[in-house]
């Protein structure tokens, strides 16, 4: 279980009794947060910061603990912020400034200076907020009584994003083959990706995977086929093609486990040694949180893994998708998003069917894939592009809708959505921003989650939502 360290600020000016009260209140808050965040992260209380030395020791512990994904800080009393400078310089993990109090209400008839000195977060948190701003430390601020459900939900959201940042910084991506020939937006600076986000993106010859494929036994395939038939409807007589995909999935799972891989890419232009382009094999693995990007798109492969980690435990679907084609009926414009094969079944509104159809590209055998209609509801579409001087995240609010009519001849997964604020502005803004055709769609995450990730990773963010206007397109 990942954890957040809780560090409370005070000083020795107010005496031992005050510090005991601070420690007791901090322990009660820690217990409360642990109860509320159970199953997400654990919260561990560190010693109260009374001096610069204690602060530095706490921050070093947080930074060096692989299980720690972030830090929550709160000033119970006034805590002179110079004591925090050296410690904050040690910390490179997500930071939440909790602006709260141990008490919800003031005891109007008994309040005295002892109470004021003990409960002066309004004083201490402003001092602390200044030093965070002065040092330009990326952080999130949550303000309000810590037991309020709205405050708890914001802390929970921070924990989700902190876990995602931790996932990002420890993510290894396998690139089977290279970027699709002549395509620009899917390419990028892999060195800069590792510097900023931690992504270790490395090339693996497809032969490395083929070696694993050749070691898969019939018993391995049978076991994977049993999993397929338990989760999906077999809607094909070409069982051999499905068994081939099962073989690929067994090999891919073993390869990624052996190499510590959390995301991967492939391309239909590099399939030497494989009979098919991996289809259902990739879809099934994405359903378990494996990041994927087609045609060598390492950025969306890594980003999808990070956002799926962020969405863990939430209701809704999150995964890779591609912009494909439009219904431009005036006033009722819709987009049909899909891909050749690889859309995760977490988006399925009905039980996915295993079907085998020609692919048309790649010059290989007809691949098996999962075919289904998509879920409905409010969601976001988010992508990352390399602008040469920096990375940019584009996040758009969308509404996933039911397809207006059946598509019996379209042998792929089908996701349909409506752009906000409308088609003209929403799609134009995406194009102006340089948004890619590969993206991550989520009905579990919101633009608030993406904004926090962008802030904590110091990434440029462009939001497209109901408030976007034509004037906004003139940047």
What does this protein look like?
With 475 residues, the chain is an alpha/beta fold. 37% of the residues lie in helices and 22% in strands. The protein has a 6-stranded antiparallel β-barrel with strand order 11-12-17-16-15-18. It has a 5-stranded parallel sheet with strand order 2-1-3-4-5, sandwiched between helices. α1 links the parallel β1 (3-9) and β2. It is elongated, with a radius of gyration of 25 Å. It starts with a strand and ends in an 11-residue tail after the last strand. The mean pLDDT is 95.
Determine the mean pLDDT: 95
Would you count the extended β strands for me? Answer: 19
Low-confidence stretches: none
Separation of the first and last Cα atoms: 44 Å
In short:
By secondary structure, the protein is an alpha/beta fold.
Set down the secondary structure blueprint:
Layout: E1 3-9, H1 16-36, E2 42-45, H2 52-64, E3 68-75, H3 82-90, E4 95-99, H4 113-118, H5 121-134, E5 140-143, H6 149-169, E6 172-176, H7 190-197, E7 200-204, H8 206-214, H9 218-231, E8 233-234, H10 239-259, E9 263-265, H11 280-286, E10 291-293, H12 298-310, E11 318-327, E12 334-338, E13 353-356, E14 368-371, E15 377-386, E16 391-401, E17 415-419, H13 423-433, E18 438-442, H14 447-456, E19 460-464
Parallel strand pairs: 1-2, 1-3, 3-4, 4-5, 6-7, 6-9, 8-13, 9-10, 16-19
Antiparallel strand pairs: 11-12, 11-18, 12-17, 13-14, 15-16, 15-18, 16-17
Helix pairs in contact: 2-3, 6-12, 6-14, 8-10, 9-10, 10-11
């Amino acid at each position: 279980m990942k954890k957040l360290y809780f560090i409370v600020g005070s000083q020795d000016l107010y005496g031992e009794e005050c510090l005991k009260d601070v420690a007791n209140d901090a322990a009660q808050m820690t217990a409360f947060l642990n109860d509320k965040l159970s199953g997400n992260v654990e919260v561990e209380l560190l010693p109260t910061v009374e001096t610069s030395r204690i602060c530095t020791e706490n921050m070093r512990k947080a930074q060096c603990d692989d299980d720690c994904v972030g830090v929550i800080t709160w000033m119970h009393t006034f805590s002179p912020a110079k004591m925090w400078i050296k410690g904050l310089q040690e910390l490179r993990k997500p930071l939440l400034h909790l602006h709260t109090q141990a008490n919800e209400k003031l005891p109007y008839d008994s309040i005295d200076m002892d109470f004021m000195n003990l409960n002066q977060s309004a004083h201490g948190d402003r001092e602390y907020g200044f030093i965070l701003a002065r040092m330009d430390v990326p952080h999130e601020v949550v303000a309000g009584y810590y037991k309020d459900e709205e405050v708890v939900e914001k802390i929970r959201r921070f924990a989700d994003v902190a876990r995602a940042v931790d996932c990002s910084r420890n993510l290894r991506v396998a690139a089977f083959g290279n970027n699709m020939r002549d395509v620009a937006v899917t390419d990028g600076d892999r060195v800069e990706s590792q510097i900023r986000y931690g992504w270790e993106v490395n090339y693996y010859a497809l032969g490395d995977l083929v070696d694993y494929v050749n070691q898969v036994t019939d018993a391995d395939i049978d076991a994977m086929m049993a999993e397929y038939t338990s989760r999906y409807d077999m809607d094909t007589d070409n069982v051999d093609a499905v068994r081939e995909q099962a073989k690929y999935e067994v090999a891919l799972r073993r390869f990624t486990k052996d190499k510590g891989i959390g995301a991967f890419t492939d391309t239909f232009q590099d399939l030497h040694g494989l009979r098919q382009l991996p289809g259902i094999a990739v879809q099934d693995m994405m359903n378990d949180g494996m990041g994927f990007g087609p045609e060598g798109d390492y950025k969306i492969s890594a980003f999808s893994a990070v956002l799926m980690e962020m969405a863990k435990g939430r209701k809704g679907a999150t995964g890779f998708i591609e912009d494909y084609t439009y219904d431009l009926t005036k006033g009722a414009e819709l987009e049909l998003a899909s891909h050749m094969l690889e859309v995760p079944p977490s988006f399925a509104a009905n039980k996915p069917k295993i079907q085998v159809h020609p692919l048309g590209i790649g010059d290989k055998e007809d691949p098996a894939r999962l075919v289904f209609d998509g879920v409905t509801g409010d969601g976001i579409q988010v992508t990352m592009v390399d602008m040469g001087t920096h990375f940019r995240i584009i996040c758009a609010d969308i509404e996933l809708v039911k397809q207006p009519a059946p598509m019996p001849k379209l042998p792929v997964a089908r996701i349909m959505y409506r752009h906000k604020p409308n088609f003209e502005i929403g799609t134009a803004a995406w194009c102006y921003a340089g948004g890619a055709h590969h993206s991550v769609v989520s009905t579990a995450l919101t633009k608030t989650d993406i904004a926090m990730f962008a802030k904590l990773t110091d990434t440029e963010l462009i939001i497209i939502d109901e408030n976007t206007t034509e004037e906004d397109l003139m940047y």
